[in-house]
Amino acid sequence: MFLTPPKYDHDDDDEDDIQYRGTAETPAPHRARVNNLTNQVSELLRNKQHLEKGHKAEISGLKNEMDQTKKDMEKYKAEAKMKERELLRCKAEGDGMREEVSSMVEITNQQADIVAQSVLSRPAAESGARSCSRANADNRAGEEARSSRG
């Protein structure tokens, strides 16, 4: 609680006191306390400004980092899409190769069946020479079929 200064006593009107008449001064302990509080307020304001500047710099840095992360994420998404398309292309190519191999196995089995039937239906001496030439002709036909597909 602040105490008001004592009232000015007009009975002691010296010439020195006349010039101070009408001005009430704050007592020294209160003035010191007010000055101390003013200094504390100034220091707190400086600290606040310093902290705000630090926070702004930190926020700016985090925004830049976030922007960079977003750019990286977009780049990785684009790469993932490209890899996915490449994977689908490779899968389709593999399916095509699987079908081709399956067809070649089927053709080879058919050729083997034809050769086996021709060997069984001919006499032993004749069948050896003819079956080899026929098997070679069948193999050439299968190779031509494969090359026309590829």
Description:
With 150 residues, the chain is mostly helical. It has one domain (27-149). It contains three helices and no strands. The protein has helices spanning 15-18, 28-121, 124-149. The longest helix has 94 residues, at 28-121.
Explain briefly what this protein structure is:
With 150 residues, the chain is mainly α. It has helices at 15-18, 28-121, 124-149.
Structural class: mainly alpha
Fraction of residues in helix: over 70%
* Element order: H for helix, E for strand: HHH
Give the number of helices.
3
Please tell me how large the radius of gyration is: 53 Å
Largest sheet data: none
Question: What is the rounded distance between the termini?
Answer: 103 Å
Uncertain runs are none
Any key phrases for this structure?
mainly alpha, 150 residues, 3 helices
Topology:
Layout: H1 15-18, H2 28-121, H3 124-149
Helix pairs in contact: 2-3
